[in-house]
Design goal:
The structure is a homodimer.
Chain A: E1 10-14, H1 18-30, E2 35-39, H2 43-51, E3 57-58, H3 62-66, E4 71-74, H4 81-88, E5 97-100, H5 106-116, E6 129-130, E7 132-134, E8 155-158, H6 166-178, E9 182-185, H7 188-212, H8 223-229, H9 236-245, H10 247-269, H11 273-293
Parallel strand pairs in A: 1-2, 1-4, 2-3, 4-5, 5-6, 8-9
Antiparallel strand pairs in A: 7-8
Helix pairs in contact in A: 4-5, 7-10, 10-11
Amino acid sequence: MHTEPYALRRLAIIGCGLIGGSFGLAMRKAFPDIAVVGYGRSNSNLMAAQQCGAITHIATSLPDAVTGADVVLLSVPVGAVFDTLSAIAPHLKPEALLMDAGSTKQDMVTAAAAVFSDAAPNAFSLANVVPAHPIAGKEKAGVTNAEATLYNDRLVILTPTPQTTRNATAAAEAVWQATGARVIQMDAHRHDRVFGAVSHLPHLLAFAYMNGVDPTAIPMGGTGFQDFSRIAASDPVVWRDILQTNRTVVLDQINAFEAALADLKNSLIQGDAETLTSLITQASVRRKAWKLSSGRVPSNEDDAA
Amino acid sequence: MHTEPYALRRLAIIGCGLIGGSFGLAMRKAFPDIAVVGYGRSNSNLMAAQQCGAITHIATSLPDAVTGADVVLLSVPVGAVFDTLSAIAPHLKPEALLMDAGSTKQDMVTAAAAVFSDAAPNAFSLANVVPAHPIAGKEKAGVTNAEATLYNDRLVILTPTPQTTRNATAAAEAVWQATGARVIQMDAHRHDRVFGAVSHLPHLLAFAYMNGVDPTAIPMGGTGFQDFSRIAASDPVVWRDILQTNRTVVLDQINAFEAALADLKNSLIQGDAETLTSLITQASVRRKAWKLSSGRVPSNEDDAA
């Protein structure tokens, strides 16, 4: 019961950027009376977060931030997760709900297991850890771009650890639903493979494209260029951490991409119009099929893939 | 004078798809009294074009279509340009203005030179050929998706041949401005390098991405996936022709991309966080700079690049 949103009095947000700030705004809109305590490395950023209403209080240390919090959201770069978990561990209420908002999930499961596995009885434990991934970025980072509606109708993926209780998962689901999100569950390993394919690889390819393209041609880019390269403007530190954390999967995906690129390249070199047409047709058909299926949730039977 | 829009009585559109159909709609909106004669391979498509108002008359042959036309727009797949030019050549009025709307321009210049170079005195000649490239696609092809506003505030690039007169180029500029477009001129060779970089390569990469990615992951694609892969849904025949026609440039661009991808991949393999960060930062800075510069027209000094 304690982690149900209606019992929520105090929310702690560690890392008040676009994701954390939008979470604060959305939660305050849903529950106007809650206290939202923010913590981050930059004091001016925390003041901006308070200014725009994403948080109600500024904490001056990690222990301050989480002490007494009913729900804690970690929204720091993926590379900072382990250290942050270690720092807050002794200060969490046993009954608190702890979530992150990172784009990779196996690392959060592993980090949480390392930090919380030997919890004393009646101390905070893995039972209340619910790794989460809201699928709601935009290329403009920072709390000044935060919106109360960022999660509206967006997907949030929960990847509970083996020790997470059903109650904690249900509480996390209720919290995210309060922000307007649709919530699904997935195995963390499957999550990382899926988002390696549909998010991390496209980002890496967009980075490579921008680095390789003739800079003098860029100003003539039209709507195709605009959409294709939009994600290349993403935050470097956030994406360095995501790509490094999900490195094995991403390297696999690069190999599959390179094979598909080689097929297209060879058909061009050989002037093989028939193969070129069929390769483009396959891509076009698959992309059109996505449009039809988007919003559909894949079954857990896919997890073996 | 004869090719100024206000003298335009009869417009011929060869190929009534999205581009040709939208041109017809826009021109009829600007000049409600003109006759717009359409020709294409599919009779049912021509009837659809007439139904939606993109053309006023259906021609049953290429000679029929262009006979008596003041302005002729060729909007057929790039691979069909030479044969179509050859078929209409004997039937063009000497004073007609002939334009195409293809995504590659050196091939149109070359094809027009081959077909029209030995024109008799007082016959139609290269003087009135103005190759054009409206930068206004969308992934939904076909005349049923045509819009009178498709060219509104979009860029149209004219690449006059060495023999094209200033008058013909000015007339082409006036015609496209009547559709709402902004018109600039560029050397055809430079055009193909620029659009190989900002359009043809991204399409090819999006095709390769869709072909290489794990199909079971696709349904989970979010907004990043959506934008990055949007152009992969483009028409296979149109893009087979563009990629083949601009093959030399595209293969060059693929090599540059592969080198940039290898840099990112190596920094991941080696766990070199510093290099990875700087590569992502370079991409991010370039993409953000595009935003600021988009709409800016590069000077002709860039042509030497």
